[in-house]
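Appendix B, example 12.
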Amino acid sequence: MGIKMKIRTLLPLLALFVIAGAAATGLVSCAEVSSQPEPSKPQTSEQAGDSALPELDGEYAYVLAKVLSKDAERGTIEIEVEKWQDGRPFSKGSLAVGSTGTVSCSELVFFPAGIGDGSTVVVCVSATDGAFPLTAYTIEKLALFEERVDRWFTA
């Protein structure tokens, strides 16, 4: 095997090593940057994903509800409003306890198919929505919502 043949064989391998080294360097620098906390944002007791959920004291209201039925074809659920037993000051909405109606799930990324009929959930709606039909911005299991409220009050 001549020297020209060896060079032709080694050049692609050398190029592959250079590309792999550059990619590895880029990944390491990305990992270093993402592991540093944002200086403008104070460290809190938030759980991953809390920041994606609507604020508890903002333009949203949280309705405690029992799911009566779901209609995936129409993208809606039927709920019955239940009484909050939580006295902490977050927006609970103005719907009458016991009232029933339709909630559109059109703003959700996925239709909440995994929520069973009879389940108690927390439906996040616009604070200005005072009557059915409503539009859900999030639907959370009660236990997970209560954990989030606990983190919010201790932050």
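Residues 94 and 130 are 6 Å apart (CA to CA). The helical segments are 3-35, 142-154.
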